[in-house]
Amino acid sequence: MKLLTIAGVISSTLLSTNVLAETSPLEFYGYMRGGVGLGSESGSNPKWEVNKVGRLGNENDLYGEFGFKKEVYNIDETSFVVDSMLKYWRGQDGAGGDVDVAQFNIQAQGLFDDKDIVIWGGDRYYQRHDVHILDSYYWDVSGVGAGIEQINIGPGKLSFALIQDQVTGDIDDGQETTAMIIDIRYAGIPLWSKADLEVGLDYNYGHERNAQSLDADDSLLLTASLTQNLSNGFNKTILQAGTAGYAEQMTGYGSGNGVIRDADDNDALGYRLINWGVLSLSENIELGHSVFIAGAGDVDGTDTNDTLVSIVARPMYKWNDQMRTIVEIGGFTQTINDVDGAGSKYTLAQAWVPQAGFWSRPELRVFVSYMDDAKNDLAFNGAANEVSVGMQVEAWW
């Protein structure tokens, strides 16, 4: 009922406009996943190290995003759009169940001679980059902010954004830090055939309040993302380097927001190298993969080096346009805070979709997964490994 009430308020807001112009209809878009399963040791099927061993057969929650977008003005190539989104999460154990507003912003395009330029403000999912099979966003500074994007300069497009960060740490006299993210990106730099480069800089700035002194240094994140489009798919290679709080995010699957400000990280440096993509190997076989390598030094004021390596492969065989068999194999090894870790997951799934293709959704699947924690004998309710079976659905529209 709460979800329907909030959705009704947002829909009414978007539909109630006095602008006399030819505008687009209300657009409904979103994402959902959900399922049920049983685990041999955990009771219900677990969700374990999903960013490191892969998400297939390794998600036990219900999550949904419900987006409502309305163009409220469109005259002479000038457009104003109100974009909103609700999100909902509930664990298999019944925890959660709350509805939040994930996005609520205004975007205006066509106000300048360069008609590609967009000015925006509000709460927004901002130019997010992820590895889908890991359910991991490696470059995502989304939040409440404002910016100007898609400025045509040279061969690419330039974007600026100022976004408020939600931070922890740096509490002085009971006051938490006010922090902002300055995000600068230049995308679409052409290289060789079917290849382009995007580069970006994020500066996480802590702003002192009256009589407040911040001990933690500001953080800097540099990103370079190379996309190679192919006749049978694509491949992406991403290199990131971070200082201070961003260094800690390199091995912790941080995305660029939610920086932990800690003076013990002032000398920290970190990096990560990611390669992922999807290839069609034949008429019936497609393959998704991810390689994740990360390291960080001087985190938490120690002279130790954190390291993480993860490899995941997801081959798929298409029996026909609607039915396919999917295998996902993933494993990782790591040393974080002088503690070694390692593990692996093997999943076999049978799935049905409306049409052929790696990205075809909605998808209904049944699966069996075997998970093994090589360094923790108690990972699965006191056991070192787990077998889980279940059914999942996933969709975007």
Q: What would the keywords be for this entry?
A:
single chain, mainly beta, Maltoporin, Chain A, 18-stranded antiparallel β-barrel, two-stranded antiparallel ribbon, 3 helices, globular
General description of the model:
This protein has one domain (2-396): Porin, LamB type (Maltoporin, Chain A). It has helices at 2-15, 50-53, 244-251, and strands at 27-39, 43-44, 61-75, 78-91, 96-109, 118-124, 129-131, 136-139, 143-153, 156-165, 168-169, 178-190, 195-207, 219-230, 233-243, 260-261, 269-280, 285-297, 305-318, 323-336, 339-352, 363-373, 385-396. The chain starts with a helix and ends with a strand. It is mainly β. It is 7% helix and 59% strand. The strands form three sheets. The protein has an 18-stranded antiparallel beta barrel. The protein is built from three helices and 23 strands.
Can you count the helices? 3
Q: What is the CATH-assigned architecture? A: Beta Barrel
Return the CATH class.
Mainly Beta
Total individual domains: 1
The CATH topology label is Maltoporin, Chain A
By secondary-structure content and strand pairing, the structural class works out as mainly beta
Shape: globular
